[in-house]
TrEMBL record:
Residues 35-251 form the PPM-type phosphatase domain. This is PPM-type phosphatase domain-containing protein. It comes from the Eukaryota. GO terms for molecular function: protein serine/threonine phosphatase activity. PROSITE patterns: PPM_2. Coiled coil: none annotated. InterPro entries: PP2C, PPM-type-like_dom_sf, PPM-type_phosphatase-like_dom.
Length: 251
């Protein structure tokens, strides 16, 4: 696992605290109608928890920023950083690779979101962690699932290959089931850390936004996830309901 001192220093560098507990909630000071909540639950794997969440509002001058992220580590690799801009994704990836001897050989997918003054949302992602927004009850996916089969041409252009062996899931070099991620030093020549970025207006039609790792999306559709949570008033409770439903489906 990653060295705790290194994780602490990385968190301090970008100015954000850790989601030290498994759940949490908060609300905007600009709008009483906008709240957030998160809930982390460990899956069936035998290694330690690898996911990491950020959820907070932060004042920057006259602007309020809602900062939200889900990092889904793999190969016992925890990613604590939160750097959501296009350029910062590259910086984050570079720093993780430079510290690979301490942080481990694995990597992480990520989906990040910045809510600016409760009116504009900027979403970025690498890998298969996903962002979904609901407007008037209709789910809309904001992120892109970076799948090896979809990006096969780019992967092969970097001198790699996509294989379903072992198993039946397409993997880069037969190892990683996503085509974009942070870290993964041994595969880096064949992987991209370039994020997909999208902007979305937030208005009275917007009901909720879900950020989640693939653990949720492998067992339910975007619309099912929205339908499950849209009538749960407390954001943390909605996150918990989603996580517990996911665990129930995986049993």
């Amino acid at each position: 696992m990653a060295d705790k001192e290194i994780l602490h220093k990385m968190k301090e560098k970008v100015g954000f605290g850790s989601a030290s507990s498994d759940s949490g909630k908060g609300k905007s000071k600009m709008s009483n109608h906008i709240t957030h909540g998160f809930y982390l639950v460990k899956g069936k794997s035998f290694h330690a928890m690898e996911d990491y969440a950020v959820a907070q509002f932060k004042q920057l001058g006259n602007n309020e920023l809602g900062l939200f992220a889900i990092f889904d580590g793999h190969l016992s690799h925890e990613i604590p950083d939160y750097l959501p801009s296009h350029l910062a994704y590259r910086i984050t990836d570079t720093e993780i690779l430079e510290k690979a001897a301490d942080l481990g050989k694995g990597g992480s997918t990520a989906v990040t979101a910045i809510l600016i003054n409760c009116s504009k949302l900027v979403v970025a992602n690498v890998g298969d962690s996903r962002a979904v927004i609901s407007k008037r009850g209709v789910a809309k996916q904001l992120s892109v699932d970076h799948e090896p089969n979809v990006e096969r041409q780019s992967i092969e252009g970097r001198g790699s290959f996509v294989s379903r062996f072992p198993g039946d899931v397409p993997r880069v070099d037969g190892q990683l089931a996503v085509s974009r991620a942070f870290g993964d030093k041994s595969l880096k020549e064949h992987l991209s850390s370039e994020p997909h970025v999208v902007m979305e207006e937030i208005n009275d039609d917007t009901e909720l936004i879900i950020l989640a790792s693939d653990g949720l999306w492998t067992v339910m559709s975007n619309q099912e996830a929205v339908d499950l949570t849209k009538n749960v008033k407390d954001a943390r409770s909605a996150a918990k309901v989603s996580a517990e439903e996911t665990m129930g489906e995986q049993r």
